[in-house]
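Please check this protein record:
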Amino acid sequence: MEGPFSLDLIPVDGASGDESMWEGSLPEEGSIPIPVPIPIPIPSLGAVSEVSAAGVIGTGTHNTGIGHGILPTQVVALTLLLASGEILECSEAANPEVFQAARLHLGCLGIVLSVTFQCVPEFRLREVAFPSTLPQVLEQLEEHLERSQYFRFLWFPHSDHVRIIYQDPTDRPPCSSSSWIWDYAVGYYLLEFLLWISTFIPALVPWINRCFFRLLFSSRVEKVARSHRIFNYECRFRQHVQDWAIPIGKTREALLELREALDAVPGLRAHFPVEVRFSKGDEVWLSPCFRRDSAFINVILYRPYGKAVPIREYWSTYERIMRKHDGRPHWAKAHSCTRKELEKMFPAFPKFCSVREKLDPTGIFLNSYLEKVFY
């Protein structure tokens, strides 16, 4: 077959063994399965991998672990195609100012042609998940951060229930206790039906949160697998999401304030979970973790069967608390920030704007969202 051609790689369900099966679309050839080696892992990976490399760094994708930064911190070099048609190689040594901006680029500096990540030898992770309570986990937060390399927890609003999750490198053989009945029949199909019912009877939401904690999250569970299989998880529901990063020292105060707000406002309902993850401070200009260790507090509202759900009151309550505690929004999630607010939140925002205006003076790479961010 003669080129040129493009190849989009998408994971194929059911791949196993020493090779990962991917599906590629080639012009006039249809879709064909192509075996490729499993990539050498990077130290920390986001929860969703069906995203391009340029996309995950461009929006500041993160995982958890106070010893690890967001994914852009793992970039050591990249290549940009600029609006002028020039191809620019960027790294700490070559075009360092552009490199600092392009590690989290928002898609507005140029087309990312290649990205080089800092990788590590393949490793397995052991995931241990167990129940706790919100007061306990907040009281022992420092201990949890020291005890596990990749620590996060899930809080179930309208209760004090918490699911603590440790993920750490291991030499143990792969194992799993997953069950289709619990994971899908109950954890997906039944849950989505009940969430749909709750759109007509909102008072059911607190009961759903407490009930499903007891059904699915109240026991200790262990799993061992390759790192990417532990880092990734399946997002089964259509959903609205916000995810802001606050200084790690304000985690307790912010979560308790969010709990109080949910208890104080009649009719304000929050789906489970509120996911709390942690990231190391960095020097990436538009990083929510710029020069501070941070806690990401992720809130969610599901859209069962695609049905619209009211979000304004919950979103405004959450954003008010995040702003109060010096929060910065995740660029890939919903937020209502204006340029004036972003300039205050991100100290290096003016530097980024200067580089953007130099590389794309006519705004070829801007869209309606980015125009709101920069103007």
